[in-house]
Amino acid sequence: MGQSTESKTIRFALALSTSFVHSCGRFHPSSNSNNLRMTSTLTGKRNQRIWREEINSTIDFLFFSVFSYILIVSLFERHIFNPLKVPESTLTNSTLEYVPDYGASTTTILFILLAAIALGRVSEWATAPSLLGMLIAGIALRNVPLISGLVVPMKWSSVLRKAAFVVILLRGGLSLDGEALKKMKSSQGACIRLALCPCTVEAVVIALAAKLIFGISILFGLLLGFLLAAVSPAVVVPSMIRIAEDGYGSRVSSLVVAAASLDDVYAITLFSLCFSIVFATGDSVWMTIIRAPLEIIGGCALGAFVGYGLRYVRPSSRLPLLLSSSMAIFFGSSCASLHIDSAGALAVLVSAFVAASNWRNGETASTEESSLKLFWEFFFQPLLFGLIGFQLTFSLLSWRKVILGILVLAIGVAARTAIAFLAVMGSGMSKQERFFVAFAWIPKATVQAALASVALEKTRNGRYEKEYEEASLIVFSLAVLSILTTAPIGAAVIRITAPLLLTKDSEENSSSSTIDRSEEMKALSDVEP
What we know:
The chain is mostly helical. 77% of the residues lie in helices and 0% in strands. The protein has helices at 2-23, 33-75, 88-92, 102-125, 130-143, 154-175, 178-183, 188-214, 218-228, 233-245, 250-278, 285-310, 318-333, 341-359, 367-391, 399-423, 431-440, 446-451, 454-461, 466-501, 507-524. The longest helix is centred in the N-terminal third of the chain and has 43 residues, at 33-75. It is globular, with a radius of gyration of 31 Å. The N and C termini lie far apart (108 Å). The model is unreliable at 20-31, 90-97, 507-515 and 522-529 (pLDDT under 50).
C-alpha cells in the first residue's frame, strides 16, 4: 500500500515536472531562436533606414552648402578660395562708389512689389494681363513727379531680375514634358514648326529692320530679334484656358500651349548665344564663333550631369537643391572670371528638364513645379515687371524713337503671324483655326522683361564704345514697348477672335478633351516664360 502510494507520488511529480518544462519551453533560448532572429532583423533594418536617412541628409546639406557658397562668391565677385580678401577694385574705388541707403532701397523694393501686385489685380479685373499693371506700377513710381526719394541700386535690381530669370528657366525646364509631346502624334510636326519657324523669321526680320531704321549692327539686331521673338505664355496660356472653359478649340489650345514653352526655350538659347558673340571678351571673331557652340555643348552637359544627380534626391530636398544649384550655376557662369552666360542659362534649363523627367511619376506636374509657380506669381513676377518699369525713365525716350520702335515691332509681328499661319499647315486645322493660332502668337512679356536690361547693364558696367550703349538702350526700350503694346493687344485679339474663328466642341468631345486639356495646361501653365 505504501509502495503503491509512493510510486503514484513519484509518477505525479514526474508528470508535473514534465508539463512545467513543456509549458515553459517557449521561454527557452533554443526554442525562441526564430523569434530572436526576426526581432534582430527588424531592428537592423530600422537602424539601416535611420543611418541611410542621416547619410542622405548630410549629403544634401553638403551639396546645398557648396551651391550656396558658389552663389555668394559669384554675387560679390570674390576669389573662390579666399572670399574674405577684399578685391583691389573695391579698395581703389571705395571713395568713388555710391554707397546705397539700405533702408531706403529696401523700402523702395517693398513699395514696388506691393504696387505691382495691386495694379496687377486691377488689370485682371479689367480683363487685361496682370503683368501689364505690374509694369505700369513700376513706370509710375519712377516717373510721377509727386513720388520722390525712391531708389533701387543697380546691383540690387540686377540680382533680383536675374534670380527671377532663373525661376523662369526652371519653370520652362520643368514644364517640358517629352512624354506629353510624344502623345500629340498628329500635331508633333506642327508643334515644333510653330515653336521654331515664327521665332527664327521674326528675329531675322527685326534684325534687318533695326539695321535699316536705327542703324545698329546685324549682330545687335539678332540679339534684339531673339529677345522680341519669344512669345509670352503668361498671356497666352490663361487666354487658352479661358477659351477652353467656353468650349472652343480643344485641339488648337493644346497645340498652342505645348508650343509656347518650346518657343521660349529656343528664343532664350539663341539670345544667350548672340549675347556671347556680341559681348565677346577680347577674343577674335573666329574664336568667338568657335567658342559659342562649345558653350552650348558645355552648358547642356553640365545641366544633364546636375539634373541626373537631382533625379535621386529625396523629395523633401528637391526644391532647395534645385534652386540653390540653379542659382549657383547661373550666377557662377556670368561672373567676371568666366563670362559664359549662355552656358549657365542652358545648364539651368537642361538640369530642370532632366530632373523633372524622373520626378513626375506619371503625373502631369511635379510638386516642385507647383511650388515654383507660387513663388513666381506672388513674388518674382510682380518684382520683375515692377523693377523693369522702374528702370524706364521718360527722359530716355523721344516720340521719334517710340514711333520708330513701334514700326519695328509691327514689322516683326507681321512676319511672325504670317509664318505662324503657314507653320500649322498640314496639321488638319481649318483656315480659320490657323488664323487664330497666328493671332495667338502675338503677345510678348516675360522673357522680354527678364532680359531687357541685360545688354544695357553690360555696356554700363564695362568699357564699351558709345555705339554699344546706344544699341543696348534701343534693345531695352523696344523690349518695354513690346510688353506695353503686344501683351494687351494680343490678349484682346485672342479673346475677340476665339468665338469668330473657332468652332464649339461637341458635347462628347468637349468632356473628354477638357480633361486632357486641363492636364496639359496644368503641366505647361504659364511656363513663365
